[in-house]
Structure formats: structure tokens, C-alpha cells
Amino acid sequence: MQNLIAMMYCLTVLMCFPPSAFSKESPISIEAHEIAEGFRPSIAVDNKGYLHAAFIRENKNCDLRRDPKPPDICYSGSIDGGKTWTPPIVIPRIPARSLGMLTPGARIATETSGAIDIVWSDVVFGQSDIFFTRSNDNGRTWSEPANISRTKGNSITPALATGSNSEIHVAWQETIEGSRNADIYYSYSTDGGKTWGKDQSFQIENVSDSQSFSASPQIIIDSKGSVHLVWLGGVSNQTNLSIYYAKRSNIWTKPVKINKSLSLVNFPRITVGQKDTIYIVWSDTDNFTTENKTNIRCAINSNATDFSEPINISDTADFYSQPTAAADRNSHIIIAWSRTHSIKDAPGLYAKISDDSGKNFSAVINLFKGNSIFPDAVILKDKIAIIFQKDLLQTNYGTKSSVDIVIVPNTN
What pTM did the predictor assign? Predict the structure, then answer.
């Protein structure tokens, strides 16, 4: 059967941490391994250093041209740092069409207890809701999907994070019934996803609480259990969106704007590092030229008050998009992004790495040459793992892709 839906390519890059700041001459030795077909991947790492991936895959039990069915949500795991992966396991779902291709797909996270969590957006009776499932046996079996949004509006683009006590935190974009505006909603569970919200009564919190448009939430939890949330906000057109941030210890702080200048921003991402330093990353067009070239920027909050002036991570403007970021408690941070196309160079996946909490970054590193989109990253004890969708060629029925894992060993 010809493929209508793109197959996914995932790349895991494992990079060494030199004893001093990274340089252009840092050695990178790449070893490649195959994962599975699919698209829109997400990656997580547990306390043992095992890797866990969630992604969307074409439903293999149908002919998409004659009998379309919703795509599968799949899980795969690796216990050897990404060299080998388990065969994809299809996550049980309600009989409805997944919005995985239209939103960021399924998101995955691990708890300190060892459990694995996945969230996604599904359409039920013409309305989209956020669903949650959990595995306690390394992804072999999964709980029955639970509807955690339960709203009258449309709930899409879920973001997922877990805390040090295995609390589960989810944020998503909510479009109120009968309205063109959207807000960022949030809920949490302290009992493994059995109940959600304050008083375990499925209460939902409106974080953005705006009269305009909010979208693309991303969430992270620091070592004290505080929740950090970032999203796009503004009127519902791209030229007027900004990056907004809010923090929740007991209650949510008032949202603050992160980007200071008028520019076209997109793809906000957030991560937390040493001493609970918060990093917010996004793509940013400085001037509204016909070329629409962008930079990748990063704002850093290391003193629990104000964020720094945004740093230009990508150095020179090009057709950059879809950044991702990951940090650890040992001063390491990676910021990676896609270059979808370029006048001078081929598309590819690029990154900068810091081993001093972002005070200094390496030169730009070309991690992969070719069509590579939707990156997601985690940091292991001595490696960095980046998963992404790699597209190979166009067919009459869509984009054909392959799944690769690339390993760069630690040379320390």
C-alpha cells in the first residue's frame, strides 16, 4: 500500500561533554540505528537513563485512499542509550480521529516512580479533548485513556511534564465554544492520573485568561515543584503574537511578555537547568522582509526574577524553525533547531551546546544534513538525545521517511 501519511524519522544524537566549553573542533563520531516509521516524535528519559519515545504512525490496517482511519499513537523504548529500540507498541485509544498530525502529536514524560505518561488530543463526537494514558511496566501495557480536559470547547496542543514526586502536569490550548479566542488551560494529578485538578475534582485553571488568542503551550517543573509555562499570545494572526511566561507555586503569577521587540515569533520552548535556571527558546523574525528569515533566540532566568535580554543562538538569520531545548543539573544545555530550506545550504538539524549554564555556547553544530523537522531533546548522564522526523522523498501519496538513531559516544 502506498503511504499517504508521512513516515517518521527519529534521530537520537549522543554528544560528549568536554571538560571545558565546547569549541568548533569538538569531536563528533556518529553511529546510526533505525527506530520505526512515523512522525511528530517526542522523547523522555527516566532515572535509569532509559529512553522512551512516542510518535504518530499511519494506521496499517486500512487503505487510506478508500477506508481512512485515524493514525496510531505508538511507543518505543531503548535501554542501551538509543542503539536499539523495542518494536512500536500501539497505544489503546477511543474510536475517534486523532489530531496528532495537526497538533504537536503525542507528548511523553517519565515519573520518578518509573511510570511512563503520554497525552494527546483526540476528537470525540466532533469535539477535541485531551487524553492521558500511563504505563507501569516499561511501555508493555497502558491504562485506558482518560479524558482530562472535559470541556465544552476544543482542547488541542497538549504539553506534558512531571515533578520530583511523580506529579503529572498538563497544559493545552482551549478554544471556548462559540468563540474565536483561545486560552491556555492547566491541570495536574498527584495520584498517577486517576484524578485531576484541585481537590481531585477535575478542576481546570485558565492560565492566560486573555480576551485574545493564546496557543502552543510548553511546560516544565523545577526542583521545588514550581510549574513554569510558556506560550504564544496576542491577536489571532502571526504578526502580533508574543512569547508569554507564567509561574505557579501556590497560585499563578501574572503572565509576562518575554520578547521585547516587535517581531514575528513562533515555536516557544522551555527547559530548566542547574539551580532551577529557566531557559525559554523560540524562533524570531527581526524584520518583516519578504524573505521571512528567522533567528533562534534564548532568554535566561537565573535569579528567579527577570529574564535576560534574548540571546541570538543561531548567529545568522536563515529559514530556521521548530527549536527545542534541554538542560540538566550539571550546567549542560542544548538548543537545537531545524533549517527547513536555505538559499545557500541544504536543510538540516543544527545545535549549540553549553557546559556552563548558558554563559558560553559552542559554535553552531550541523547534527544532520537533510529534511529534519519537529526535534525534541533530553540529556542523559553523559549524552544528549535528540529525536526528530526525517523526510526522505515525495511520492504520489505523501512524504516517505525512514527512522534513524545517531549515536555520538562520550570521549571523556
Answer: 0.89
